[in-house]
Automatic annotation (TrEMBL):
Residues 27-479 form the Aldehyde dehydrogenase domain. The active site is at 257. It is an enzyme of class 1 (oxidoreductase). InterPro entries: Ald_DH/histidinol_DH, Ald_DH_C, Ald_DH_CS_GLU, Ald_DH_N, Aldehyde_DH_dom, Aldehyde_DH_Superfamily, Succ_semiAld_DH. GO terms for molecular function: oxidoreductase activity. CDD domains: ALDH_F5_SSADH_GabD (cd07103). It comes from Mesorhizobium cantuariense. It holds the Pfam family Aldedh. Belongs to the aldehyde dehydrogenase family. This is NAD-dependent succinate-semialdehyde dehydrogenase. It comes from the Bacteria. Its EC number is 1.2.1.-.
Length: 485
């Protein structure tokens, strides 16, 4: 049993979700705690047949769900929101057990997740059309918006609760039905949230989930099945490219939230103490395992040594361990591959002249714990300056002037998030406008909100999640021209 779980029934519901009935496959896969290696659950390993069945259920349910009034859909979303709030402690415990995230941080994620059905319960009532002035008196011209249909969604392991809510809440508000495949590393909290959705009163077939140890077969079916009208995916750019190609034959609509390589820039007029705190937040939240994590820290020469000294001192004090320990700031990496990647980035940097100011080693022999690490004397030819690490590694690069650092910050195929600290208002505006990113945090290390559009440009993705713009991604625009009036 998962520690700190107040309602064991919630965990039991995960396997009893009625949306798909009995899986066709007899195969199973295991879900384990990355901190300890402890086995948490054994789930049915579903494939093409179960995915097709879920799509059929969603397709059959979609007309009836779309036919409800916006207020009726809104009421169910409100109930789902309240159930998430009511079960927040248990959802956080499940999340910490399967992903390793510190429990306090897991509770914060669940709170953030609950905000999305609440927000879109309100936005469901604000799907507006428009009238257009006609060129003649015997015509009327107007635009209406309708749900796109069945949506296939694939969510990542690093925010397994909030990503479920952020993806499916706007789709449900718009009148779409859902087939969701959660990451194989973290399917349990997604299952619990779907169990709560069922309790909230979503009709049979509206919300459907697929458990699978690998996503290839499920992804191909979602992309190739003509009953699915849209794919929403959060994950790596490589997989995003593959899904986009698989959807191209049907010109299927896609929303992709992909990889990042976020710069974090500290100018010489910045509040250094605030910048240090913001860098720790942007870099080490979730152990650096976020798509918007600060991956390259640029610090202007005039404040470089001060920043490095204060930053390294605080980073060295960050505690690492089991997420259920209330004193822990950083939990485990998700798996052994993540460990190998951070170690290879550090080794490459050291070989090319980088200096480890703190950290740099694994913690213990079991699990996937790694010390928060600060690297200095980092140059652009190092792997850590070119690739996203996705771990608790902060490489610091010295720079001289604003034009130089903006060029280097933009010199990447990615364009998801960027951060910078400065006080000069002219500089703030110019740098904010010059950075080629979908989101820019100015004098803050955290900027996610259900009210704001989340997403990137370049090869960091297509579309936006959150805000009113997130709802538009699940609606089709239809022009009506009425003659003979």
């Amino acid at each position: 049993m998962i520690r700190h779980l107040k309602s064991p029934a919630l965990f039991a519901w995960i396997d009893r979700m009625p949306a798909l009935g009995t899986p066709v496959s007899v195969r199973t896969f295991e879900v384990s705690n990355p901190s300890t290696g402890e086995l948490l659950a054994e789930l049915p390993d579903m494939g093409v047949e179960e995915t097709r069945s879920a799509i059929d259920k969603a397709y059959d349910a979609q007309p009836g769900w779309a036919a409800l009034t916006a207020r009726e859909r809104s009421d169910i979303l409100w109930r789902w929101h309240q159930l998430i709030v009511d079960h927040a402690d248990d959802l956080a415990a499940i999340l910490t057990a399967e992903m390793g995230k510190p429990l306090t941080e897991a509770k914060s994620e669940v709170t953030h997740a609950a905000a999305y059905p609440q927000w879109y319960a309100e936005e469901a009532n604000r799907i507006y059309g428009e009238t257009i002035s006609a060129p003649s008196t015997d015509r009327r011209m107007l635009v209406i918006k309708q749900p796109i249909g069945v949506v296939g969604t694939i969510t990542p392991w690093n925010f397994p609760a909030s990503m479920v809510a952020r993806k499916i809440s706007p789709a449900l508000a718009a009148g779409c039905t859902i087939v969701l495949k959660p990451a194989e590393q973290t399917p349990l909290v997604a299952g619990a949230m779907f169990a709560l959705a069922h309790q909230a009163g979503f009709p049979e077939g509206v919300v459907n989930r697929i458990y699978a140890s690998e996503g290839d077969a499920v992804g191909r079916e979602l992309c190739s099945n003509a009953k699915v009208r849209k794919i929403s995916f959060t994950g790596s750019t490589e997989v995003g490219r593959l899904l986009m190609r698989q959807c191209s034959d049907q010109i299927k609509k896609v929303s992709l939230e992909l990889g990042g390589n976020a710069p974090f820039i500290v100018f010489d007029d910045a509040d250094i103490d605030a910048a240090v705190d913001g860098a720790i937040q942007a870099k080490f939240r979730n152990g650096g395992q976020t798509c918007v994590s600060a991956n390259r820290l640029y610090v202007q020469s005039g404040v470089h040594d001060e920043f490095v000294g204060k930053f390294a001192e605080k980073v060295c004090q960050l505690s690492v361990g089991d997420g259920f320990d209330p004193c822990i700031f950083i939990g485990p990496l998700i798996d052994k591959r993540a460990l190998a990647k951070i170690e290879s980035h550090i080794a490459d940097a050291i070989a090319k002249g980088g200096i480890v100011r703190c950290g740099g080693d694994r913690v213990g022999m079991k699990g996937t714990l790694f010390q928060p690490t600060v690297l200095t004397e980092v140059s652009r030819d190092m792997t850590v300056a070119q690739e996203e690490t996705f771990g608790p590694l902060a490489p610091i690069i010295r720079f001289e002037d604003a034009d130089q650092v903006v060029r280097e910050a933009n010199d990447t195929i990615y364009g998801l998030a960027a951060y910078f600290y400065a006080s000069n208002l002219k500089r703030v505006w110019r740098v904010a406008e010059a950075l080629e990113y979908g989101m820019v945090g100015i004098n803050t290390g955290r900027m996610s909100s259900e009210a704001a559009p989340f997403g990137g440009i370049k090869q960091s993705g297509i579309g936006r999640e959150g805000s009113r713009h997130g709802l538009e991604d699940y609606l089709e625009m239809k022009y009506l021209c009425m003659g003979g009036i």
